[in-house]
Amino acid sequence: MGYSGVRGGQEAIEAAERLVERARFGGHSRWLELDQITERLGPAVDRVMGEGGLWAPHLAARAVRQSQGDLLEAAQLLRAHRSTLPRLGYSLPADTAELPAVRRVAPAHRNPPGGQLLGRSADFTPRLLDLGPEGPAGAHTCEVPNGPDLPHDRLPESAGSDPEAVLRDAGLLPDRRNTDDPEPYDITRAPARPGTPRSARLSAMARAETGSLTHLWYTCGRSPRHQSPEIPLELRRGRLPLRVTHPHTGRPVTVAAVQVTEARTVRPIARPRPDGTRFDLGYGLCFGENEPKALAMAGLDLLVHRDPHTDRLEQKVLIALDGPEASGFLEHLKLPHYVDFRSTMERVQAVRAAAGGRA
Amino acid sequence: MTGRETGPVHNRLEGAGVPDTLTRERRCELLAAAEHDEIVPLAERLLADGATPPPTVVKAPEVGMVVLQVREPVEETRFYLGEVLVTECSVEVDGVPGWCMRADDDRVAALAGALLDAVAAASPAARAEVDALCAAVAERRAAEDAAEWADITATTVAFEELT
C-alpha cells in the first residue's frame, strides 16, 4: 500500500497542539512533580521503562507526565528518546543468583530453601477500591511490625537462588545448559524472526507490551493443547547491579543498579513422547516491578520451547508484542489516507463490475 | 588492601606513605552512588581551595546507554535485558586519570565524580576527604539496606497446609 502526503492544515494542527498543551500545563491542580510520579506511580514508571527498553526512572516519569498517563504513548516517547542516545558499552553478564531479593515467593514449595518473603505485596489483600479519607490520613498503617528473629544482615541470595534444584536433583528436569556461551542476539540492531536464538526471544519479551504479553500467554497457555498445569517455582523482585569493566584497572566495577522482576515456571510434559516423565522450565525477567509480565514471559518461554510452530507462537512472540510498533501502526491509521481509500474503492468497484454487478 | 592498582599512581601513593583504604573500583562505586549534592560541592571546594591542580577533561560528560547483559539460569546463556541510562566522564589531574560512570543523565555529577576519582589517586591530602565522603555514602547505603531488610523480614511467611 502506498501513501501520499497532504498539504495544508497547519493552523488547525497548531491549534490542536495548543489544546494538548493546555491539558498538560493548564488546569487548577498543582503541577505534577517528577518525584511524585516515580514515588507514587512506581509500577507505571517501571512498565514504561520495560516497554521502552531503557532503565531511566526520571525520563520515564517525564514521559508519563507528557503522555498524561497514556503508558503506551509514554513507552513510545522513551523508546524514541532512546534512539537518540549513544551506546557507551555492554555490562558484564549479571547473574540473578546474586540478586538481593526484596520479595521472594515460591508457589510450588511451602518451605523453599531460604524461605519465602512476601515483601511489598497485596496478593492476600482484598482488591477493593479505597474510599477512605483523602491524603495521608491512612499513614498510621505504614508502620511495619517487627519480623521474626532473622539474622540482622541480609541473607545471602545463594540460600534461595536455585529453585529448580529439587527437580533437577530428582532427575525431573532436562539439562538444557549450554556450554558454548554464544553472543546474545541484539534485537535493536537486527530484526528478530523465527529461528533466531532464544536470547532474541527473551529480549523481545523483556520489552514487550505488558497487556499483549499477558493476553498471548493467557490464550495460548489455557488452550486444550496445554492441559498440564503451570506452576511457578519462584517469583522474585530485587536490584540487579550494572557492572562494567573499569577502564583503568580492567576489573569489574558496579556503576548502577536496576530493579527487576524474575519468574521461573514449570509444566509437566503432557505427552508421553519424547519424554513425558519430566518438566519443562520457562524463564522470565523484566525491568522494574512488573510481576504479570515476568510470569507471562516465563510461561511463553516455556511454551515456545515446547512447540514454537503451532499457531505460529514463536513468530507472535518475536513480532507481535512490541508496544511502540503496534501502537505506532495503529496511530498512523488516523492520518489522511485519501489516495489509498480512493484507490481501494476504485479497485473494489472494478472487481464488482467485472463480476457483472453495477459499477 | 586488596585489588590495588599497580603502575605510576600506585608508586606515587606508596612513596607518600599514605595508606590507600579503598580500592579504585570501590571508590568509583561509592562515588557513582553518591547524590549530586554530596559530590558536586566537594569537587567545587577542592578546586576552589587549590587543593588540586586544574583538571583536564579527557572525555566530556556524555549521556548514553549501557546494555545490561544477563545470564539466564535455564540454558545459562546470555541475553540483553535492556539498556540503562548512564553518564560517563574522564579527566586527568596532574597526569593521573580519573573516571566516572553513574546512572541517569547528570553531567555535572559525572564530571565531579571523575574529578574526585582522579584527585583521590593523585593527592594523598585530598584523598582523605574523598574517602570520608565515600565512607558516608557506604554508611548511608548500609543503613538503607538494613532498614529495608528489617521491613522485609516482617513479611517472612511459612504457610501451613490444611490436611
UniProtKB/TrEMBL annotation, chain A:
Pfam families: PhnI. GO terms for biological process: organic phosphonate metabolic process. Residues 126-201 are annotated as: Disordered. This is Phosphonate metabolism protein PhnI.
